[in-house]
């Protein structure tokens, strides 16, 4: 009987020690980011809350495609002067990729000007500058003319050499990487386009993939890199304000990945 009690005591002691060791040991995997809660969850996003995967993507597509106002490509000039306004200088816009603050009046096509950058390159799906994906403010940004030309229609990926006056952006023969402070912005703009344009409105079905050099195909890579950028560079106050201005004043739809960056992982 005594031997039985001793064996039981040893078993309990060993089990307790194992539990305590587990509590003290460092976690081997990262804890998933907590879900974001926004003022729009009970209204705008109510049919998407709680969903994942293709169901979430489908719900978001319906939400962000409904009752959308569209503008002409020429009207984008004035819209960007509002959406991309430098919060520290209301006479300027903040330029994508370089982070430079430049006078709103310097919009055009000459060296030293800023122009309209399609983050989802307009050749990837061949939608050009037509009203719709070609004029969607959620992926159009003010950008230095020369930096925009350097990016061209390249896919996004890590690596490459420094872009002249690019603020830390890099480029190689088949891909472009924005400066660190813009990488999450770019990821969320690209993935917005993939949800917004699903091929049911006369335009190509835009999708992210794991390739670079996608050319005129309606794909943009690399998805794994874009996901990592979304995690590493969360939405900024500038990005959130921009999303709100587009919703309130122009298109009346939102980029869901700015409101809920965790939905990137939930879908892809």
From TrEMBL:
Residues 156-176 are annotated as: Disordered. Pfam families: Endonuclease_1. InterPro entries: Endonuclease-I, His-Me_finger_sf. Residues 1-35 form the signal peptide. The keyword Nuclease applies. GO terms for molecular function: hydrolase activity; nuclease activity. Keywords: Hydrolase, Nuclease, Signal. This is Ribonuclease. It comes from Streptomyces aquilus.
């Amino acid at each position: 009987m005594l031997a039985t009690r001793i064996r039981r005591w040893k078993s309990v002691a060993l089990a307790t020690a194992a539990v305590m060791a587990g509590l003290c040991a460092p976690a081997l995997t990262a804890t998933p980011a907590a879900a974001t809660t926004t003022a729009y969850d009970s209204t705008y996003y109510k049919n998407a809350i709680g969903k994942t995967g293709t169901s979430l993507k489908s719900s978001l597509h319906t939400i962000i495609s409904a009752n959308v106002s569209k503008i002409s490509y020429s009207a984008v000039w004035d819209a960007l002067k509002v959406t991309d306004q430098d919060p520290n200088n209301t006479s300027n816009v903040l330029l994508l990729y370089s982070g430079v603050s430049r006078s709103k009046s310097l919009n055009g096509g000459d060296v030293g000007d800023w122009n309209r950058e399609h983050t989802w390159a307009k050749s990837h799906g061949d939608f050009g500058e037509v009203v719709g994906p070609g004029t969607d403010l959620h992926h159009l940004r003010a950008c230095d003319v020369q930096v925009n030309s350097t990016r061209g229609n390249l896919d996004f990926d890590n690596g490459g050499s420094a872009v002249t006056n690019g603020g830390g952006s890099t480029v190689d023969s088949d891909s472009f990487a924005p400066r660190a402070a813009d990488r999450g912005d770019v990821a969320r703009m690209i993935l917005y386009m993939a949800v917004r344009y699903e091929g049911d409105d006369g335009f190509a079905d835009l999708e992210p993939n794991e390739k670079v050099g996608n050319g005129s195909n309606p794909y943009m890579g690399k998805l794994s890199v874009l996901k990592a950028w979304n995690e590493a560079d969360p939405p900024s106050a500038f990005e959130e304000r921009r999303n709100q201005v587009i919703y309130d004043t122009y298109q009346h739809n939102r980029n869901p990945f700015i409101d809920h960056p965790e939905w990137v992982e939930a879908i892809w």
